[in-house]
Amino acid sequence: MTKQKDLGCVSIALSALLLISCGSSVTTSNNNGGGGNGGGAGSCSNATTGGSTDFSTSPVISGCPVFPTDNPWNTDISNFCVDPNSSAYINSINQDKQFLHADFGSNPDYGIPYVVVPGNQQFVPVLFTEFPEESDPGPYPVPPDAPIEGGSNSTGDRHVLTLDSGNCMLYELYHAFKDSGDNGWSAGSGAVFDLHSDALRHDGWTSADAAGLPILPGLARYDEVAAGAIKHALRFTVASTQRGYIHPATHFASPSSDLSLPPMGLRLRLKGSFDISGYTGQSKIILTALKKYGMIVADNGSSWYITGAPDSRWDDTDLDQLKTVPGSAFEVVQTGTILP
User: Fold this and answer.
1) What is this structure's pTM?
2) Is the dihedral of CA 221, 307, 21, 80 positive or negative?
3) Residue partners of 310: CB distance under 8 A and separation at least 6
4) Distances (CA, A) of 116 to 110, 141, 169, 220, 310
5) How far lies 194's CA from each of 1, 105, 124, 164, 179, in Å?
6) Strands (E), 195-265
7) Binning pLDDT at 50, 70 and 90, where does residue 18 land?
8) Quick check: helix, strand or coil at residue 288?
9) How many CB atoms lie within 10 A of CB 1?
10) Domain residues of the chain, as ranges?
11) Strands 64-65 and 60-61, sheet pairing
12) CA dihedral 145, 126, 211, 50 (to 10 degrees)
C-alpha cells in the first residue's frame, strides 16, 4: 500500500455522501452512448434506499451485518449517473493493465485473509510505527495466530483483519507484525469500524488501506458467492491516482494533480451493455455484482485487480474467466465531490 501523508481532522456525516453532483434523488438524462445500465439516452438517478438503522439486506459475516443498508458499500449503483470524466479515468487506468483480474484464489497466501473472534477475545497492545496520529489507538482483539496477508514471511502490505463477532466491531492493521516476546502487535497503521454505523474516518486520515476505507467489506468472499450473490461493492486497485478522494474514502496517496487519474474512492461499475451470459460459476456471480454494486478504488497497485479473501474452495480456473473482461467494459459513476 502506498500512503501519502495528509493532515485533517474533520468529522464527516454520511449525509454529505448524498450531496452528490448528480443529486441524491435527481433524475436526469444519461447521454453516455449506451454504456449505462439504465440504457443509452435513458434516465439515471442517484437516489438511494435503506437507512442508517436498517440491516435487512446488508451483507452478513458471522452474524454481524456489514454496515447499514444505506452505506455506500451496500448501495445499488446500477442506475447511477455516469461521470462526465468517465472515459478519461478509464483510459488512464488502462495505461497499466487492460483486463480485470482476481487478486485472490485458493492459495492461502493469495488475497487478504481475515479472522473472526468471539466477543470475549483478549485485547492486546498494538504499537503504531508509521501513521500513529491517523490510527485508532489499541488495544485490539487480535489473536496471536491471526492470518497475515501474504503469509508470515510476507514483505508486502501484511494486512491483518479481525472481526469481533460478539460486538460487530472490525479491527484492521496495515504492515502488521506479531511481537516476538508477547501477544502484542506492531503495525504501520490501524483502524476500527463499528459495523452498525455509517461513520467515516476523519478527512485526511488513512486506515489500514491507503484510501481510508475498511478492507473487509470490499472483499469477495467464497461463502457469499456459494450462496449465490455478492451484495456489496468490491475493492480494487489502480496503478496511479490523483491527489484527492471521494467519500467514503478519506485519504489520498499521490502528489499528482493530473485530473485524468482516478481519485481514491472512485466508483466504477460494469456496463449494463456488457454481455455476461457466456460466463459461468463464481465469475458470473462476481460480474453480476459489479453491474449492481460496482467497485471502489482503494489503493495504488496493479490496475483492475479486485480483492478477495483466500479460500481453498475458490475455483481458480473459473476465476480466470475474469481475465477476459476488458477495462473498457467499465464506466465511472458520480458519487460525490473530489476532496480536499
Assistant:
1) 0.90
2) negative
3) 104, 105, 106, 107, 108, 109, 110, 111, 112, 113
4) 19, 10, 10, 16, 14
5) 23, 28, 19, 10, 26
6) 234-238
7) very low
8) helix
9) 23
10) 14-109+212-333, 115-194
11) antiparallel
12) 80
**Model pLDDT, residue 150:** 97
Residue with cell 481458480: 316
Dig out the grid coordinates for 278 from the structure.
Answer: 457466456
**Cα–Cα distance for residue pair 166/178, rounded to 1 Å:** 23
Buried b (16+ CB within 10 A) or exposed e, 314-339: bbeebbebbeebebebbbbbbbbebb
Do 49 and 22 touch, CB atoms closer than 8 A? no
pLDDT tens sequence across 61-84: 999 999 999 999 999 999 999 999
| H-helix segments, 227-308 | 281-292
- Chain centroid offset of residue 68 CA: 16
C-alpha cell at 180: 516476538
Is the four-CA dihedral 219, 222, 223, 229 of positive or negative sign?
Answer: positive
What is the C-alpha to C-alpha distance for residues 91 and 327, in angstroms, rounded to an integer?
Answer: 9
As a whole number of angstroms, the distance between CA 171 and CA 182 comes to: 19
